[in-house]
């Protein structure tokens, strides 16, 4: 998304890396239009969310790798009640759980772009859209999803 057109309204807190910095490669990747997730160097399993240890084999040899920002809708919810005052006039909106088959079926949560009343089908293909907020007090980028 560009030209300062954002899916979510201004006034929401800027997302940022956790204090321990474990997810900083994810946030930096988004700023660079890349979807970065962890992969174990020992067993080669992908994982999300970020951890210091492999979910599968318990190895500490974890790396960050870029993956394609394409997946399928695994689940979804139409949100009717604002969780923040800035969303008071923005409801409803759609949150999707996206499964990434090319990355060990890890799943990520995000907003689904488009009409909040659109029909949604489990298994529908989606692609990631990098929404940059360079003028925010703390600049950030969000990964939104749109149907293909």
How many domains make up the 3D coordinates? 2
Global geometry = globular
Under the CATH scheme, the architecture of the largest domain is Beta Barrel
Detail the poorly predicted runs. Answer: none
Q: How would you write the strand order of the largest sheet? A: 6-5-4-7-8
Count of DSSP H/I helices: 1
Question: What would the CATH topology of the largest domain be?
Answer: OB fold (Dihydrolipoamide Acetyltransferase, E2P)
Radius of gyration: 16 Å
Number of strands: 8
Largest sheet: 5 strands, antiparallel
Describe, in plain words, how this protein is organized in 3D:
The protein is mainly beta and 148 residues long. The protein folds into two domains: 16-67, no CATH class; 69-148, OB fold (Dihydrolipoamide Acetyltransferase, E2P). Helices cover 5% and strands 38% of the residues. The protein contains one helix and eight strands. It has a five-stranded antiparallel sheet with strand order 6-5-4-7-8. A hairpin with a 5-residue loop joins strand 5 (93-100) and strand 6. The model has no long low-confidence stretch (mean pLDDT 93).
């Amino acid at each position: 998304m560009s030209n300062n057109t954002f899916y979510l309204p201004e006034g929401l807190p800027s997302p940022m890396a956790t204090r321990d910095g474990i997810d900083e490669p994810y946030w930096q990747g988004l700023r660079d239009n890349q979807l970065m997730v962890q992969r174990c160097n020992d067993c080669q399993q992908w994982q999300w969310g970020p951890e210091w240890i492999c979910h599968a084999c318990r190895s500490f040899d974890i790396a960050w790798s870029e993956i394609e920002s394409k997946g399928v809708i695994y689940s979804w919810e139409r949100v009717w009640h604002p969780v923040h005052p800035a969303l008071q006039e923005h409801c409803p909106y759609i949150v999707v759980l996206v499964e990434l088959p090319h990355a060990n079926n890890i799943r990520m949560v995000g907003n689904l772009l488009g009409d909040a009343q659109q029909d949604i089908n489990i298994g529908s293909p989606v692609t990631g859209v990098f929404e940059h907020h360079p003028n925010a007090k703390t600049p950030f980028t969000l990964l939104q999803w749109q149907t293909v």
